[in-house]
Amino acid sequence: MRPSGRAPNQLRSVILEPAFSKYAEGSCLARFGDTHVLCTASVDEKVPSFLRNTGKGWVTAEYGMLPRSTHTRTDREAAKGKQSGRTQEIQRLIGRSLRAVTQLTAMGEIQIKVDCDVIQADGGTRTAAITGSYVALYMAFQKLVSLGTLSAIPLISQVAAVSCGLYKGTPVLDLDYAEDSTCQADSNFVLTADGGIVEIQGTAEDTPFRQSEFLTLLDLAQQGVAELAALQRKVLGL
Amino acid sequence: MRPSGRAPNQLRSVILEPAFSKYAEGSCLARFGDTHVLCTASVDEKVPSFLRNTGKGWVTAEYGMLPRSTHTRTDREAAKGKQSGRTQEIQRLIGRSLRAVTQLTAMGEIQIKVDCDVIQADGGTRTAAITGSYVALYMAFQKLVSLGTLSAIPLISQVAAVSCGLYKGTPVLDLDYAEDSTCQADSNFVLTADGGIVEIQGTAEDTPFRQSEFLTLLDLAQQGVAELAALQRKVLGL
Amino acid sequence: MRPSGRAPNQLRSVILEPAFSKYAEGSCLARFGDTHVLCTASVDEKVPSFLRNTGKGWVTAEYGMLPRSTHTRTDREAAKGKQSGRTQEIQRLIGRSLRAVTQLTAMGEIQIKVDCDVIQADGGTRTAAITGSYVALYMAFQKLVSLGTLSAIPLISQVAAVSCGLYKGTPVLDLDYAEDSTCQADSNFVLTADGGIVEIQGTAEDTPFRQSEFLTLLDLAQQGVAELAALQRKVLGL
Amino acid sequence: MRPSGRAPNQLRSVILEPAFSKYAEGSCLARFGDTHVLCTASVDEKVPSFLRNTGKGWVTAEYGMLPRSTHTRTDREAAKGKQSGRTQEIQRLIGRSLRAVTQLTAMGEIQIKVDCDVIQADGGTRTAAITGSYVALYMAFQKLVSLGTLSAIPLISQVAAVSCGLYKGTPVLDLDYAEDSTCQADSNFVLTADGGIVEIQGTAEDTPFRQSEFLTLLDLAQQGVAELAALQRKVLGL
Amino acid sequence: MRPSGRAPNQLRSVILEPAFSKYAEGSCLARFGDTHVLCTASVDEKVPSFLRNTGKGWVTAEYGMLPRSTHTRTDREAAKGKQSGRTQEIQRLIGRSLRAVTQLTAMGEIQIKVDCDVIQADGGTRTAAITGSYVALYMAFQKLVSLGTLSAIPLISQVAAVSCGLYKGTPVLDLDYAEDSTCQADSNFVLTADGGIVEIQGTAEDTPFRQSEFLTLLDLAQQGVAELAALQRKVLGL
Amino acid sequence: MRPSGRAPNQLRSVILEPAFSKYAEGSCLARFGDTHVLCTASVDEKVPSFLRNTGKGWVTAEYGMLPRSTHTRTDREAAKGKQSGRTQEIQRLIGRSLRAVTQLTAMGEIQIKVDCDVIQADGGTRTAAITGSYVALYMAFQKLVSLGTLSAIPLISQVAAVSCGLYKGTPVLDLDYAEDSTCQADSNFVLTADGGIVEIQGTAEDTPFRQSEFLTLLDLAQQGVAELAALQRKVLGL
């Protein structure tokens, strides 16, 4: 049995609150149970230098945790003077995931910077961040369309993410911290609403897992992402 | 007339939401109109090295802004690899303000780390941070008393803060961003509930101000802090 | 057809040269075609602080590229003053992969630091690094056994890695740079000799890939790792 | 009685030595008793990027202490790789104070960089720095007028600074280290020669002070600044 | 007797392997006994900003050691976030030595970046680096001539380097680590093939040495450099 | 003719002002013409970790330039966040030079930190720094003897330094900036009062120089150091 009493294929209570921020062009507070991630999408008129004069746009992401978003306080990265390897790994993942569903050539030379800040962490912050970021990104594009900067929203798929893992031998969906910290192996799945694979990060620090186990996790993730994608569409009014 | 339509001596709508965080020993979300600062107080069993074996405790503070808490996106300090001078100035101010009302010798060798993170900024983030931090700090001490670690709450005064400034020639209380960005001179006042002065930071980057003007601002601040202190007591049930 | 003329399921010419370094306790120069990675394993008597007095050991990894290992010169990370996100992501992957096959509780409080330095890069440096690191790590443990520090080699599986991807629509094994820079989607597979999954990193920056495509890549990887594992055993004399 | 034997409203022996530096466009060695601060003003033809093409100039300041300017050696900030929060707070204060009396729109796109380096410290380094910097800045503007770059000196007021505090219950002017390290509360006052307030930094880390005490300190500061301003005029030949 | 059994005026076995790197415009693996340094010369179309629009070129160098090139592992500079003083001192020496024999005005606005990476260290890495870098630099210039970018190789002398020292009272040539770590005084000599002095770095950390001893070392160095220069010419086919 | 009108073998006017600093255990302001370097020696009760429990002491040095010590302003290293390669090279040289004449085993586990800060620079700052540092170091040892911490001054030789170079073909002693910036080749000589060689740094960035020229420079340096050493003894009362 899961510590939370959830069924193996049951998501936590998920709330996506769009337009949470007063200033950002797009924003979403993504709550997966006690994991709360604020995602904002900011339009920047400058693209990275490698894209200048190419007519292409860019989407990038940054990730951070408030020092006391965690059970015990984590040192502030700004005070330490550098972002941890974990932070960089996560923000690169978020950026790649969003770019995989964006038609960069249809954006013009505009950059969207997505910030994912963890207000409270109870496992699965990177997958909540991706799920909420899609909503924020969509809204920022809507804004650009409404301003006439873009003629259409340059998103070619809908993306969401969830983690799955083996908890006491059972494959379960959407790990919370109590599960995450004790499970044998876990994977993060970034999938499109129609079942395409954007990113898979499977990690078995403790014991390697079998191919069949991995495929069960992938199936669970497909179910979970379908639910999340439906929720994204609902809050976006699609 | 003020952009917000407020009277010169009128605070913004202030909401102090205690116990906002699931994990922190003390916490408070301080909302001054559209300025929202999350303050958490974390107990650390280690004091800074200069206090080891002295029997004294310490209170310190860190401050940060989410990148899109501001009207246009601000670069993330963790990504830049250092905290700005402004950030350091503010977090040092918060720390000094809290220590001024704490009896460090009555804490034992314990450190409280207060984190003030600006979720949304509309002027006056440092004064909102101090006002909310007092609530978070008080709650953390309550927790230590309830655990038997401390026998009494080692706070000798109650502290809150507010900014005042000359807006189009008129002294006004609790500047919001529209006022702050255009006013001639402004001051941050950190005061105790009974009118003691903890910190004053008066700054006239544009034109020096007269002594009489400064004293009017100080009077306004005393009124404002009295209101804020009453609100702190209310949410703390005192 | 692949630029190199290889069959879809054909590895590059792979040479693992053990004991390449005069000083390191274990070392291996891993050559996958024109990709050359020097892997050294150094024994350190100190474990990270979180393991002190636990009786457990640790394996960690660092990764770097010589500035002109690449087609055009890459800035030196030591001169820039920080490791890139890519570097940190890779070295964390190598460390996790090695720890997944190591019985940390059987090592005593010893740390093995594995350094993977890319002398020349032609795609697949991280998978070559993992494959060579296993050899270096094994040798370092052999040395500790021969010195009597350990009674047995604390490795519970044999690990190797390879990348696969869709090149012009065809699933191919062991991507070189010409393929990697143009393929639609690629994945890095870290697998054990008996088919267990240690890490999977599937990335589709361009277009999401289908689940069936992904499974084909996983099959190719299983074949490739079987070959690599046989080569590891051969050079280790097992 | 004060440790130095001075009367409560008595400044230390103050010597302003203009043109101390062979190369700087303006310079002044400010000695307040045993506190010696070298202030240089350097003309830079480039303004910060936010002022480019605005026709406005800028004045900025940097502050540092020689490692053995203090009673015991302080670590060198250049070796530690960052400036402390205190350093940044002080240099921001100096810069704001000078800008408050400078007509930036009358400077053209020129920047003056003021460096304040503490050769020896015995309390009150920031106020000595401001007092000496005004002299250095004035001289640099004189030089620009003599070169025909400017038609008039773009200074609208004369600024100087002094600290005051409560020492054993008595309000005293111009604290030295022996007083500063034991006083209950102290304030730094940056004032114009005609009594305008440019900056006030009042700090009561130990015990909050009463409003009446604060006003007494402000009066003392007005007297002290009047003396310092007279000395500035004398060494500048005004 | 020397630990290696060499005669006092005998170099180690020296092998210069040109064109070691697949990508670099010029490269050389320099082996002085067990000291192995990979030198690559990369052509960069951009000169440093102080040379822009001067028509002059530049040659610069960077130096690094692989973490386990040494007897015990050295921390990775990229991970520490800065290059040591020793590293900077050495790379500045290499750059100056190469520029001393290059006619910068005949290069056009091109920069050659030389990277010297120590694969294995057994003393004398900086002198091996200079000796190998000359070969790499020559080859890069040959390439530019063959491409028609330059009309002639802009090198005015041939440079090589060797260290000498007093080992147990005897002056010896080309110190290896066993000698270097115990010798009283040692010097690095960077000389031209025709006996010109480019750089001398004599260091007596233990006991000052006599002028006559120093001159004997200089004579030994002249002999050693003559041999090294002949080898350079041989591998370059001159 | 030299720009200053000095004879080829003539030092600038040299003034060594001991006890310049109020706090440092030893100090000396070294003036070589317009080059002014403040040298302080601070006693630290802690040795570097590699010397702990060895009974040996250590002498180390740090070097810095005030931003406007130079003809045009140089960026502040503390603000840039790192010391330049030149700074590190110089401070390492000063430290080695002082250690070469100190009997570290006779110091006990004490460290002397020498700070050399350039107040004004007109060429030859590193040699002025070494010459002044010897005086500061001697005084710090005197202080330790007077306190009974040491029984005798643990200095085995007297060290001073001077630069020489070829200026318009003529070998000259003690280069000033006007000469240094145009000379073909220059060398820094750190010598003992009795003619021993501690450090030689000969550099010919422009054209290699002949062995005979180098020997002439060495002779000039011996004369110059003899004069400087006599001056050191005079100000130390020896």
Automatic annotation (TrEMBL), chains A, B, C, D, E, F:
Pfam families reported for this sequence: RNase_PH (PF01138), RNase_PH_C (PF03725)
HAMAP family attached to this UniProt entry: RNase_PH (MF_00564)
Lineage of producing organism: Bacteria, Pseudomonadati, Pseudomonadota, Alphaproteobacteria, Rhodospirillales
Gene from which the chain derives: rph
Origin superkingdom: Bacteria
One GO process term, biological-process aspect: rRNA catabolic process
Domain Exoribonuclease phosphorolytic: 10-140, 158-224
Annotated PROSITE patterns: RIBONUCLEASE_PH (PS01277)
Protein name: Ribonuclease PH
Catalytic reaction list: tRNA(n+1) + phosphate = tRNA(n) + a ribonucleoside 5'-diphosphate
Keywords in alphabetical order: Nucleotidyltransferase, RNA-binding, rRNA processing, Transferase, tRNA processing, tRNA-binding
